[in-house]
Fold this protein.
Amino acid sequence: MGKRVVGIFSVMILAFSLVLTRLYYITGGQFLAMAAERQSSFSLKVATSRGIIYDCNMKSLVEQEEQYLASVLPTPQAVSALKDSVEDVTKVIDQKQIQSGRPILTLVSSPHIYSPDIEVFTATKRYSDDLLCPHLIGYVNGDPKTGVTGIEKSYNSLLEEYSGDITVRYQVDALGNPLTGVGTTVEKDSYGQKGGVVLTIDSKLQKIVQDIANEDIPKGAVVVMDPYSGDIKALASTPSFNPNKIADYLNDPDSPLINRAFYSYNVGSTFKIVTAAAALEQGIPTTRAHICTGSIDIDGQVFSCNKKSGHGELDLKGAIEHSCNTYFIDLAKDIGGGAIRNMAKKLGFGQPAQLAEGMASGSGNLPTDSDLNNIAEVANFGFGQGVLMATPIQVSQMICTVANGGSSVTPRLVLGTTLDGASLDQKEVMVLPTTAMKERTAELLRKYMVSVVENGSGSRAKPDFETAGGKTATAQTGRFIEGKEQLQAWFAGFYPGEHPKYVITVLVEGGGEGSVAAAPIFKRICDMIQAAIGV
């Protein structure tokens, strides 16, 4: 009886063991096979791709340049084969690497390298050395690549969704050494996807603006905007930087990593347009006269005009044409600092432009109620001096309002996202323009700004073809270098003058007079746009 029970029990244990064994192979066999494969191979990541950043015409702004990457088993034969494709092969493969036998990755100059120990891949380089709009695109670091600044940071999650890799897997022996003469396995995991983010930037315009800025502006910025939508079509900040060499710029005293188009500066006479708009909206006639003698006394404080001998008698048109300081000081005294500040707020001054998540321009600075209780501060405010600060983006917003007939636009940098690099999948919501001034006010100011270029202080901004309108500025900073005050040179205007298509703002940091330093750059940009694109 006992033997019979033991026998039955033994049979049950055997059957149960067989079931467990079967379950083990079903559920774990594949895992173990994969693990065994990994233990018998060595993988080398060759290249990593990331979502694309496009311009408004779906032209890629990143991953444009191809490069050749070689996955190399470091053998004497490989060293010999690399000699013609690597500048100094001994720096790539040394004796220790040959002894270790571990595969390495290196850039090569040609895809035509013949060796059983070398495999060459064509991959894209994230940033070309002459990358367009680097301050907007930003840069990445680390592995996996993570956005640090710009659109790379703002849209990091989206761009990561479209990331991919190329990996080479080598077979290894029992000691973990890669086997020579044995074929490799190449894995392409979602590499080269086309999804990404689409910007308002037009790469043709950006190329024109960026090249001119790099040539003519040691420090400063240029912004080009669509006056009707607020879309930023081009933006350059100088000095610029190469995102492939970020370490070179970290301690640079000229701070090339700063986006100066987003930075707040003393504004100067470009702001006279705001004062004029506030006056016209109050019903002040354009014929209002003022006699400029070269200076004006405001409550015991003497303010000088840009023309020491004075402009004589001027109306509003003449005051804008010749950028007469004393006219606008006297005008500000009449209409009050509050009216000027209210108009400035309608035009975007005193508030940041939010262009993407975590990506905004500076807010600048407007005088407070307490500041405006001081009549001298009102005088300063009237011609763009004192505590007033603004960014090139904000100055561009102001000019857009004049150019488009009185509507204040919201600056926009991102059109939306794309799945395939051919069409917009999701569009960013466009903020509708708001009325900031009467159409008649904008029409008069536009006419006067054309006269500035045709007959006044902005004559050096006059394009060779078509007309243009604009305003010069030479903004005092109160900062002195070797006894000489640093002056911010501005020219902000629209092109063409009759039917504006572009608003162009030029800032030359420490450049001196706007009519001399900034206006000719505006002209050059207009002429290049006409030659390359047309209007």
Observations:
- The longest strand covers residues 469-481.
- The two ends are 107 Å apart (CA to CA).
